[in-house]
TrEMBL record, chain A:
Residues 95-307 form the ABC transmembrane type-1 domain. Belongs to the binding-protein-dependent transport system permease family. SUPFAM superfamilies: MetI-like. This is Glycerol-3-phosphate ABC transporter permease. PROSITE patterns: ABC_TM1.
From TrEMBL, chain B:
It comes from Actinocatenispora rupis. This is Glycerol-3-phosphate ABC transporter permease. PANTHER family: ABC TRANSPORTER PERMEASE PROTEIN MG189-RELATED-RELATED, SN-GLYCEROL-3-PHOSPHATE TRANSPORT INTEGRAL MEMBRANE PROTEIN ABC TRANSPORTER UGPE-RELATED. GO terms for biological process: transmembrane transport. It is found in: Cell membrane. Belongs to the binding-protein-dependent transport system permease family. One of its GO terms (cellular component) is plasma membrane. Residues 66-256 form the ABC transmembrane type-1 domain. Keywords: Cell membrane, Membrane, Transmembrane, Transmembrane helix, Transport.
Length: 318, 271
């Protein structure tokens, strides 16, 4: 991201034109501008400091305590919560499920999203309508649409059962079956995100240099080679962006899980975000909630940093 | 060969359309189907019945839920966009030492996931005495990074002469912001407002955590109450309740789809 800005390109004080009406010296004017800058950013700065940065510090502190969020004293326990968590197979299972869920949604979104984008990139009648309709699930309430999907997955009268029966498949019990509930959630997330990913990919496809394709075609490259050797590599920044956004989104999956499974059956759909919520607001265990939150934060920061480094390399490479 | 591929492409288009739209269609049609007909599966409703809406309205305090959702959404979006406009103007037009560093610190807040701040922010609003208040629901969510970023990027594309001229004429920065920059940024301001409205309307986990009394719940949280009272038995009423949440967003999306899509996908092209 470029951080060049307007004001630094503005002429220095000495070159400032004399202002009518305000006889203030350039230095006083500059000081006033500094103060105005601070006043303008103050509301946002305070809000972000208190509600975005402080929570990281506070989580870090709470993760070193054993506190029920009620008692007046907060006992310090050092790294015990982390030792406890990383020694607990259940926590590793939570991480594993999160990675599985996230990975399945990412892969599905990338493949289907790119396919839809390439389809919508053709000159077809009605493609704008399809683009809009396929994006719509992305902005609809997760709890509301979660209940709709619960109904669709209903093993007795659900739409899914009827459709699968039409093609001769006896569908599973979906959300009440611990080996299928996760795949039900994956389907819902794919439905919510494929349209979004497709729109992002379409923007990438529209920025493709056509001369490259023509040159390759002259050299006798077929459509598959064009796709593999030109389209995919040139889209890799978009792919990276989509991957990171989807990972961050799925790690935080909450509303759909809350309405559809409550993390169950058993622990079958307890991902990291649900684990943190459960520790904090059901078990009232601030220590484990804080430690879990910090683990999640570190994972997501690492992934975002990897993307940032990749993008930087790309920019230099170009 | 050629007509065949074209046909295949249209088949693909229809498949995408159907997959995306069927759950929304199913929501709308089930909500107007009487309970006994829901149990005899039918693709198309034979008659439109409003009983589900009556049941749904009786199963949760919808008037209160609606009022709270509207207040939280509109007030939250308005404050957030004002905060974003002020700070984006400062970053785009005002001088300050180490401004880029400050800007990076602001952007960094975007990397803090909502799940991570949940418990600490709850403890913060509890310490402020804000649990079960509008302030508690609204204030933690009005800090703005993404909207600020989009607005700043837009402001930096405005012709420099316009703002310089306004300053030379003796107008102060608030006047420049209000009379020159904002009118010229109208499309971007509309975009960030609409995106903020949709996000706040759908927000579930924070209102859930920051409130505990029925009188302070918002619509998405109300969905949980309805599921508790009607879930798995009275699907029609549950669907009618979901319609209450989904339809306002569908209407907004229908009117402002260009802005919503642009706003939500902006990170990909402008990052």
């Amino acid at each position: 991201m470029t951080v060049t800005d307007r004001s630094s390109a503005a002429p220095a004080d000495a070159a400032d034109p004399p202002t009518r009406g305000t006889p203030a010296s350039p230095r006083r004017r500059r000081r006033r501008e500094y103060l105005l800058f601070l006043a303008f950013i103050a509301p946002n700065a305070v809000l972000l400091a208190v509600f975005a940065y402080w929570p990281i510090v506070f989580n870090g502190y709470l993760s070193l305590t054993s506190w029920d969020m009620l008692s007046p004293t907060i006992p310090f326990v050092g790294l015990a919560n982390y030792a406890d968590m990383f020694g607990d197979p259940d926590f590793w299972a939570v991480l594993g499920r999160t990675v599985l869920f996230s990975g399945a949604v990412v892969i599905g979104c990338l493949i289907a999203g790119l396919a839809v984008a390439m389809l919508l990139n053709q000159k077809l009648v009605g493609r704008n309508l399809v683009r809009t309709v396929s994006f719509a699930p992305h902005i609809l309430s997760g709890v509301a649409m979660g209940t709709v999907w619960l109904f669709i997955f209903d093993p007795q009268i659900g739409l899914m059962k009827v459709v699968l029966e039409k093609v001769g498949i006896a569908g599973p019990a979906w959300m009440t079956d611990s080996s299928w509930a996760m795949w039900g959630l994956v389907l819902v997330y794919l439905w919510k995100n494929i349209g979004f990913v497709a729109v992002v990919y379409m923007a990438g496809l529209q920025g493709m240099p056509t001369d490259l394709y023509e040159a390759a075609r002259l050299d006798g490259a077929g459509p598959w080679t064009l796709f593999r050797r030109i389209t995919l590599p040139l889209l890799s920044p978009v792919t990276f962006f989509v991957t990171v956004v989807t990972i961050v989104g799925t790690f935080q999956a909450f509303d759909v899980i809350a309405i559809m499974t409550n993390g169950g059956p058993g622990d079958a759909t307890t991902t990291i975000s649900w684990y943190i919520y459960k520790q904090a607001f059901q078990a009232l265990d601030a220590g484990h909630a804080g430690a879990g939150a910090l683990v999640m934060f570190v994972i997501l920061i690492a992934i975002t940093a990897a993307q940032a480094r990749f993008m930087e390399r790309r920019v230099h490479y170009r | 060969m050629k007509p065949l591929t074209t046909t295949l492409k249209y088949v693909g288009l229809v498949v995408v359309l159907v997959c995306a739209f069927v759950p929304i269609y199913w929501l709308l049609t089930t909500s107007v189907t009487s309970p006994d007909k829901i149990f005899q599966f039918q693709w198309f409703p034979t008659s439109v019945e409003w009983q589900n809406y009556v049941d749904s309205w009786a199963s949760a305090p919808f008037a209160t839920l609606y009022k709270n959702s509207v207040i939280v959404t509109l007030l939250g979006a308005l404050i957030q966009v004002c905060v974003a406009i002020l700070s984006s103007y400062a970053f785009a037009f005002l001088r300050f030492p180490a401004k880029n560093l400050v800007f990076m610190l602001f952007l960094g807040a975007m990397m803090v996931p909502g799940t991570v701040v949940l418990m600490p922010n709850f403890l913060t609003i509890a310490a402020l005495g804000w649990v079960n208040t509008y302030a508690g629901i609204i204030v933690p969510g009005v800090g703005s990074v993404f909207a600020m970023f989009l607005l700043r990027q837009h402001m930096m594309t405005l012709p420099h002469e316009v703002t310089e001229a306004a300053k030379v004429d003796g107008a102060n920065h608030l006047r420049v912001l209000w009379n020159v920059v904002l009118p010229m940024s109208r499309p971007m301001v509309v975009t960030v407002i609409v995106v903020a409205v949709v996000e706040k309307w759908n927000d579930f986990v924070w209102p859930l955590v920051s409130t505990s009394t029925d009188s302070m719940r918002t619509l998405p949280v109300g969905m949980l109450m309805i599921q508790d009272s009607e879930g798995f038995t009275n699907w029609g009423a549950v669907m009618a309740s979901a319609v209450f949440i989904v339809v306002p967003v569908l209407v907004v999306f229908f009117i402002a789809q260009r802005q919503i899509i642009a706003g939500l996908t902006a990170g990909a092209t402008k990052g």
